Design the sequence.
């Protein structure tokens, strides 16, 4: 699991039926606003930072930081589009939901395997 804190995991485990957003945030170690950005990109693929900032009612610099985190986690893809007037703009698309679910399963499996290893090496000394 990526950067999930024990508090995040504890909160998730205490929920009888955690929501998808909560699971995404915990497993990928991302904040709620980053999860919202990802979900918006599923609905509006090819969005620019400016379009996302308007839709999310957030500052462009904050949206840029969210997109950087999502890119690092492999949840978003970025494509450069040339503008007719010169220059370029980046367009962002969320990784398709089935792939994101696979990533969630993989991260949880990896974490579980790690924790099992920690348990096995425990010898009673704190």
Sequence:
């Amino acid at each position: 699991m990526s950067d999930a804190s024990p508090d995040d995991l504890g909160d998730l485990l205490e929920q009888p039926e955690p929501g998808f957003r909560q699971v995404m945030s915990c497993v990928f170690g991302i904040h709620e606003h980053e999860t919202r950005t990802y979900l918006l990109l599923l609905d509006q693929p090819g969005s620019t930072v400016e379009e996302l900032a308007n839709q999310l009612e957030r500052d462009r610099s904050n949206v840029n930081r969210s997109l950087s985190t999502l890119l690092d986690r492999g949840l978003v893809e970025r494509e450069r589009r040339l503008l007719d007037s010169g220059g370029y703009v980046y367009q962002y698309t969320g990784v398709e939901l089935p792939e994101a679910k696979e990533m969630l399963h993989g991260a949880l499996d990896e974490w579980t395997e790690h924790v099992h290893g920690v348990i096995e090496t425990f010898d009673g000394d704190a």
In short: The chain has a mean pLDDT of 89. Helices lie at 6-14, 20-28, 32-43, 49-56, 60-73, 97-121.
